[in-house]
Every structure is written in C-alpha cells, then in structure tokens.
Amino acid sequence: MTRPVIVVVGAGPGVSGSVARRFAREGYDVGLLGTDGEQLVQLAGELEALGAAVGRTVVDVTDAEATTAAIQRFGGFADRIDVLHFNPSAFREKDPLELTVPELLEDVALGVGALLTAVQAARPFMSGGGRVTVTGSMAADKPWNRAASLGVQKAGVRNLVRSLDATLAPDGIRAVTVTVRGTLSTEGAFTPDNVADALWSAAHQVVADWQVEVPYAG
C-alpha cells in the first residue's frame, strides 16, 4: 500500500509548514504549493528528514491552470490525495474607504477562490475518508477595519467550506475549517504547531459528530 498523501496549498514557514510537519510525522507524504522557492526547499528538507517523500511547486495559486496542473501531478504520483490543506490569505492594510473593488476581488481570489481551484483539481484523486482542511480566523467574525479584505476572505472561505462539505459528504469526503480565535505567536497556545495540532484533530473527527467549523481558542 502507498503512504497517505497531504497536499498543502500556500505552504510556508507558519501554520502551513507546521501542518506539513505534523502530517509527515504521522506517515504522510507531502505535496507543497507555495510562492517562495527557498522556503519550499527548506521545508521539503525538514519533511524528508521525517521520512516523507516530498514534491514541491512554486506557483501563484490564483493561476488556476498552473495550480490545477501542480495538484494533478501530486495526485498522479501516488494516485491518491488523502488530505488537501488550504492556508492562503492576503493581508492588505486598507480600511473600507481606502480599499478598491479590484483590490478586494484580488484578495478574495487568493483567500477564497483558490480553494475552489484546489478542491476541483484534487477531487479525482480523493476517495471516502478524504479530508479538506482550511485555516480559518476570528477575522471572519471580528474583522479589523484596517484590513477589511481579510475579514471578507475568512468569512467567505468558511462559508465555502460549508458548501464543499455538503457536496462532498455523500462520497465520504469531509471538509472543515479551524477558526483560530487568537493571534499567532512564537510561544503559548497560538503557536503554529499548536494550531497544526488543532487542524490534525479536526481532520480526524468522529464522522457521526462532524463539525464543519471547529473553533480553536487555545
């Protein structure tokens, strides 16, 4: 049997890197999509040291064609994707009177739209027991007006996850977002590693009691 596979969309040094390491320690091989080639090389080395086979692609995930091709390569390698983790969002420090419509749409294309691309690309390689996990934020409920687009992204992606879960559930695939109700930090409850643990737990919920949104308050 081949090892399970997680594809991490928006891979980097924060929560997404911690998620990749958490799953690698549990025996998963890993596909990484990110925008910073040096970060991907470093993360890939860490994952390989944990015993994972790693594929990595530098890609702008708002480029639907390139993202689809990358995910399909990862899926085709082992003919499976067991977990798709989605992490990207755009932070743009502009309040609603400064933010333009094109800027808002650009940010939503990254923080929400790219999830559609990723799931549609991964779906042919997912089967019963597959999971889609998304890093959520309290900005969905309590947005900071100085970063107005971030709240829109996090509210939108949480809503989209509900639709994805309802669509995929009949085939035994579930989707979940973990709403991080705190500020990421280098120590304490809100370290990237602790959030990654919460995402691992959310992906491994008992199906009969499935929650599409799981709050993480430390």
UniProtKB/TrEMBL annotation:
Catalytic activity, EC: 1.-.-.-
Species name: Nocardioides caricicola
Signal peptide bounds: none
MF GO annotations: oxidoreductase activity
Source species, domain of life: Bacteria
InterPro entries on file: NAD(P)-bd_dom_sf (IPR036291), SDR_fam (IPR002347)
Full protein name: SDR family oxidoreductase
CDD domains per record: SDR_c
Alphabetically ordered keywords of this record: Oxidoreductase
Record Pfam families: adh_short (PF00106)
